[in-house]
Design brief:
This protein has about 350 residues and is of the alpha/beta class. It has one domain: Divalent-metal-dependent TIM barrel enzymes (TIM Barrel, Alpha-Beta Barrel), CATH 3.20.20. The protein is built from 12 helices and 10 strands. The strands form 2 sheets. An 8-stranded parallel beta sheet has the order 3-2-1-10-9-8-6-4. Strands 5-7 form a two-stranded antiparallel sheet. Helix 3 runs parallel beside helix 4 and helix 8 runs parallel beside helix 9. The radius of gyration is 20 Å and the shape is globular. It binds D-glucose and magnesium ion (MG). The site of magnesium ion (MG) has 5 residues, from loops.
């Protein structure tokens, strides 16, 4: 049994395309994914704006809202909630140079339009969170953008969203690189700082993805703790990552079990979830995986999370306190490893 509620995005069950090869598995319909998510143990779905309304660029604002209502019905029919909507600002030809920070003002307008439509979609789906994964908000060529202006433009874009809807909350999902070389908002520290520059800091928080922290050379459990201390950890994308290379979105815990344990422990100790926050996953199946097994990575991630929850509950806090009092961290470290390895 878990004390948490879990969420996942439809993109987490995908066709296996990578930078060097095409799809290897056929697409699975959205309604089918939702049914499966529910059966596996998830209670909410995370959305990109165009996961909910695929042809949104060709639709009027009213048509977009109507299409989102149809998606709400699929969720309701399956007893599932919507956690957030994230504008997908990295695939359209108008977002080649970024979205909110593109050099061309027409392209920035398009990005804002997508941001505001994401709010409309969220309202129809019954979600109060917008997630900004700032995929191309940074530079490929340092000299191509004014980096101060870049940060200012992010603040302006968030302000537009906050002003458009007085109830919506904005969560920035930080990532240091990929697809961009240098991001304007690489870590949760940057997220907190940018939040405080906006017109309503109380409605700006963060989403921590484990792999993104690791790509920044940081421990995800420390990033989680940092945002929690500000009361601003409003979602997580748990997964794993083998060092500094392409973004892997591996099954939670498969690379660094101790680090994963500490992510879970910090969440539990700080009552994450008590204000309705979900434990979100952002994991991708290996490209080698066959269609019939395309949900195994989700099942595994949930199972590993729950096993680590159990380990966190059985953690001997009195022994930890004794080690701390004696300043015997060698013994403490050995205790943690033995605790994780014993049956
Ligand atoms: C990529 C991100 C991406 C986001 C998703 C929702 O590195 O992790 O998957 O989480 O687009 O914002
Ligand atoms: Mg993510």
């Amino acid at each position: 049994m878990s004390q948490f509620r879990f969420s996942v995005g439809p993109w987490n069950v995908h066709e296996g395309r990578d930078a060097f090869g095409p799809e290897v598995r056929p697409s699975i319909a959205f309604a089918e994914k939702v049914k499966k998510f529910k059966a596996i143990g998830f209670s909410a779905v995370q959305f990109h704006d165009d996961d909910a309304v695929p042809k949104m660029n060709e639709m009027t604002d009213a048509q977009i809202r109507a299409a989102a209502r149809d998606v709400r019905k699929i969720l309701d029919d399956n007893g599932m909630a919507a956690e957030f909507v994230a504008p997908r600002l990295w695939e359209d030809p108008r977002t080649i140079d970024g979205g909110f920070t593109a050099n061309d003002p027409k392209e920035r307008d398009f990005a804002i339009w997508r941001g505001l439509r994401s709010v409309d979609i969220a309202n129809e789906l019954g979600a109060d969170k917008i997630v900004l994964w700032l995929a191309r908000e940074g530079t490929l060529c340092f000299e191509s953008k004014n980096p101060v202006e870049g940060v200012n433009r992010l603040v302006e874009a968030i302000n537009r969203i906050l002003e458009y809807d007085k109830k919506i909350r904005v969560l920035i999902e930080s990532k240091p690189n990929e697809p961009i070389d240098r991001s304007f908002c690489p870590t949760l520290g940057h997220v907190m700082a940018i939040g405080y520059r906006t017109v309503d800091p109380n409605r700006v928080g963060g989403l921590l993805e484990s792999a993104h922290a690791i790509l920044a050379g940081l421990d995800p459990a420390m990033e989680i703790a940092f945002a929690l201390s500000f009361g601003k950890l409003w979602s997580v994308h748990l997964n794993d990552q083998n060092g500094l290379k392409y973004d892997q979105d591996k099954t939670f815990g498969v690379e660094n079990l101790r680090q994963a344990f500490n992510e879970v422990r910090v969440l539990i100790e700080n009552n994450y979830g008590s204000k309705g926050e979900y434990v979100g996953l952002d994991v991708k199946a290996m490209r080698t995986q066959k269609l019939a097994e395309s949900y195994q990575h989700l099942r595994n991630s949930l199972q590993i999370f729950k096993m680590l929850e159990e380990k966190a509950r059985k953690f001997d806090y009195a022994f930890q306190a004794k080690c701390i009092a004696e300043r015997n961290y060698e013994v403490l470290e050995m205790y943690v490893l033995e605790h994780l390895m014993k049956a």
